[in-house]
Specification:
By secondary structure, the chain is mainly α. The chain has one domain: Ribosomal protein S20 (Methane Monooxygenase Hydroxylase, Chain G, domain 1), CATH 1.20.58. The protein contains three helices and no strands. It is elongated and about 65 Å long. The termini are far apart.
């Protein structure tokens, strides 16, 4: 347990920050699941709409430091490839 007042405050802040980051990470995972579900239905318009809606939220998580930029780039690339494959 933290001893000084400053370290106790840091511990409290860390708990709040961890909860907030977990919430953001969960939100992005939900958007990704919605895109994958739309891809599973093999409906191009629905998948494209879900992907277009998800991309800004996924990108924001990189700037906030929630997800790494390489993971996000890889995820978006794979999802986009799957959406485009539905069109053809």
């Amino acid at each position: 347990m933290a001893n000084s007042a400053g370290s106790r405050k840091r511990a409290r802040q860390a708990v709040k920050r961890r909860a907030h980051n977990a919430s953001l990470r969960s939100m992005v995972r939900t958007y990704i699941k919605k895109v994958r579900a739309a891809i599973e239905t093999k409906n191009y318009e629905q998948a494209q709409a879900a992907f277009t809606l998800a991309v800004p939220y996924i990108d924001k998580m990189v700037t906030k430091g929630i997800l790494s930029k390489n993971k996000v780039a890889r995820t978006k690339s794979r999802m986009n490839a799957q959406v485009v494959a539905l069109k053809g």
